[in-house]
UniProtKB/TrEMBL annotation:
SMART domains: HTH_GNTR (SM00345), UTRA (SM00866). It comes from the Bacteria. Pfam families: GntR (PF00392), UTRA (PF07702). PROSITE patterns: HTH_GNTR (PS50949). Gene3D superfamilies: Chorismate lyase-like, Winged helix-like DNA-binding domain superfamily/Winged helix DNA-binding domain. The lineage of its organism: Bacteria, Bacillati, Actinomycetota, Actinomycetes, Pseudonocardiales. Signal peptide: none annotated. Keywords: DNA-binding, Transcription, Transcription regulation. This is GntR family transcriptional regulator. InterPro entries: Bact_HTH_transcr_reg (IPR050679), Chorismate_lyase_/UTRA_dom_sf (IPR028978), Tscrpt_reg_HTH_GntR (IPR000524), UTRA (IPR011663), WH-like_DNA-bd_sf (IPR036388), WH_DNA-bd_sf (IPR036390).
Length: 238
């Protein structure tokens, strides 16, 4: 005989669901500290072990961050960014008040890219991303092949102000890529642009896109404020 019916919803799952709803609805806002484990346990009539397990799951889902000896804080901001279009574009598309300032377009060389892709010259496009309420959030430098019509970019500028549109117009479409993440101390020039002290550590993300045939489309190097951004990699099946 087969029994059908609703699977019991355990105390841990109920606690996760309740806290998730409070966070996603904004009742627990980004940056707000959650009550302590004892208070949560008393409020929801569960054990401290259940509370710890629930908080661990919320942290895995990137809804909160827990600081040892301090407590748990909401990190969810209501927005999921699509990395397939690059973090900055996704951030702007998600409703943040982001402005983009084009700093320069010029021809340049890059020994590593030349060796990897067999190209002699590149076009470097540097842009500053700024949150209108909080100031600069990124400086990014895009290197694209100086081939065909792209060679004229320093004189003619980007198509519709967009690197993506310019690349598509030149027949370059990203089909694959990789991204490397590390840290970099700001030099004097970058510190001035980002309005930060020289030597401050920033996240550095280097994202390289190639065509389906393996030809270079674009390499973007972004400097990101580590207090505002984090990278989360997953593996295996969820």
């Amino acid at each position: 005989m087969n029994r059908t019916g609703q699977v019991p919803f355990g105390k841990r799952d109920r606690l996760i669901a309740e806290l998730t709803e409070q966070i996603r609805s904004g009742r627990l806002a980004r940056g707000e500290q959650l009550p302590g484990e004892n208070q949560i346990a008393e409020t929801y009539q569960v054990s401290r072990g259940t509370v710890r397990s629930a908080l661990s799951e919320l942290q895995r889902q990137e809804l909160i961050a827990t600081r040892s000896g301090v407590g748990s804080f909401v990190t969810f901001d209501g927005v999921t960014l699509d990395q397939t279009v690059g973090w900055a574009t996704a951030l702007a598309d998600s409703g943040f008040d982001i402005s983009t300032e084009l700093l320069s377009i010029e021809r340049t060389t890059d020994a590593e890219l030349s060796e990897r892709f067999g190209l002699g010259e590149f076009i470097a496009i540097r842009r500053l991303r700024r949150d209108r309420s909080a100031g600069p959030v990124s400086v990014e430098t895009s290197l694209i092949p100086a081939i065909g019509e792209l060679r004229e970019l320093p004189d003619e500028g980007l198509l519709d102000g967009s690197i993506t549109a310019t690349l598509l117009s030149a027949g370059l479409r990203a089909g694959a890529g990789d991204q490397r993440i590390g840290t970099k101390a700001l030099d004097a020039e970058m510190a001035a642009l980002l309005e930060r002290p020289e030597g401050e550590l920033f996240l550095q993300a280097v994202r390289t896109s190639v065509t389906a045939e393996g030809e270079l489309v674009e390499q973007v190097t972004s400097l990101l404020d580590p207090n505002r951004f984090q990278f989360h990699l997953t593996f295996g099946r969820p």
